[in-house]
Amino acid sequence: DIVMTQSPDSLAVSLGERATITCKSSQSVLYSSNNKNYLAWYQQKPGQPPKLLIYWASTRESGVPDRFSGSGSGTDFTLTISSLQAEDVAVYYCQQYYSRAITFGQGTRLEIK
Amino acid sequence: QVQLVQSGAEVKNPGASVKVSCKASGYTFTSYYMHWVRQAPGQGLEWMGMINPSDGGTNYPQKFQGRVSMTRDTSTSTVYMELSSLRSEDTALYYCARTIYGDSYYMDVWGKGTTVIVSS
Known about the structure:
heterodimer; A: 113 residues; mainly beta; seven-stranded mixed beta sheet; B: 120 residues; four-stranded antiparallel beta sheet; globular
């Protein structure tokens, strides 16, 4: 199985500042035939199911604020929140769908400093 | 609107089985795969497998093969996930989530989850 490793496990950022979460896969999730990275990001707030933020590593889901952005390719990916808002407090997960055995990262807890 | 409505909480004894349902509405049921993802208390997300509602085809990770079964009823747009030989480690919140056909297995709509508690 492809192992997804996120860092850090937890992060505290001041309101209005940038938050950056990284996700590393144990093998490339870039499919060469279509040049797409099979990686998604989710946000999970307490007591709620996960919410899709980003897919294909950098495509923002409809309705997701543009302060959220995804980047990276191959095995190294980043989720960036450009200006942290109070409502962004949550746990963030990356997920690969390159393999038919879907796997998630362990999650990164984002808090306000 | 697109919704996935899951069945209510369950409490089971160790060794028993549980069957959780997920009823879809607001979209063409057979045009999307359905996945099951679980989350143990205070833990991360774990994928349990998927079903193609169109033909009933399934894909389970090795960890759950032989213990999980996913089925569907196209007449009611409902998918089911049955987990057998329950143990305490199966205590978790179980989510269904859909992905569109093809190889795009990112989950855009999720159910609210079903709590399963395994305890004697």
